[in-house]
Amino acid sequence: MINIAILGFGVIGSGTAEVLKRNAETVKAQAGDEVRVKYILDLRDFPESEYADRIVHDFDVILNDPEVSVVAEMMGGSHPAYEFAIAAMKAGKSVVTSNKEVVANYGVELLACAKENKVRYLFEASVGGGIPIIRAMSTSLVGNEICEINGILNGTTNYILTQMKLHGKTMQEALKEAQQKGYAEANPDADILGIDACRKICILSALAFGELVPSDLVDTKGITEITTEDVEKAEANGQAIKLVARAAKRGDGKLYMAVSPVAVNNSNPLSTVDDVFNAVLVRGNTLGDVMFYGAGAGSLPTASAVVADIIDICRCLGNQPEQQQWVKSENVTSEMTDPMKADYEARVGTPLCK
Ligand code: HSE
After folding, report:
1. What pTM, to 2 d.p., does this model score?
2. From the candidates 38, 93, 100, 200, which is the catalytic residue?
3. How far is the CA of 156 from the centre of ligand 1 (A)?
4. What is the pLDDT of residues 277-302, one digit of tens each?
């Protein structure tokens, strides 16, 4: 029996318990042993839940229990998620997370702590919900020099833009629906202002280039100024407006990073990514373009990525492989060179920076 603890019993935390229960036989076969949720840390009580007897309010109960080998952090926010993850790893427990904010802010320190303590810090669910993009970039694509990443990385804004385009809804109406479906952040400003997508491109860019850029150094523009007229105009021009987060290595070695709406050419596959779906288009120097597509938010899709990380750790108990380490970097610009810009407009579309 492998015991795990869930931190945060919200949309993703409860989804993780559900996936572990629904797919118990598969999880057991894949992990090599039964995976049991021993504790759930939350500020709230859940008297009606079948997990009511596992709820604890004190993190030390989990930290001091040597039977817990994996901690799944789904609390969101940087603090105390960061402190809990560090403490768990120092106690010899591997950590998995869906928390993009803490990975974007403290990925360097968290990965270093994992290495130092011979455990792992996995974060597949932090970008793209259920899309297996982190593992792909950490393994399958490592024979490439990554040249460019373009991602539709926020399900809420993509849902809103799709509802505006297909059903003429207002941004507020569509946002309310996204909140009801459990896609939006607790503070939806992080979605519509592009902050969430920015954190995610910082993570992908660190995986591709080994350099973690602070998200506040990335030029970030959300969708709040996009009107129904903009959406219609793009359509008439053979384009679709998408919130695109992008990163590329410029010829001079600087990192180009930006988040903004882009009028994506209909010839580019990102233009067809609708609703809550996310997609990441990665360009490798030997592979060319490869696109990862799937549900970018929501309880069970995201939880499936959390569970995959848990299984990965269970398979290597006592002998966790070393992970890529990142360095902090401020080597970033929001300026494309002229040739880059022309190439980008032809292949992808026109960034809208009004
Ligand atoms: N609020 C996020 C989104 C949740 O809409 O994509 C998934 O990270």
Report:
1. 0.98
2. 200
3. 6
4. 999 999 999 999 999 999 999 999 99
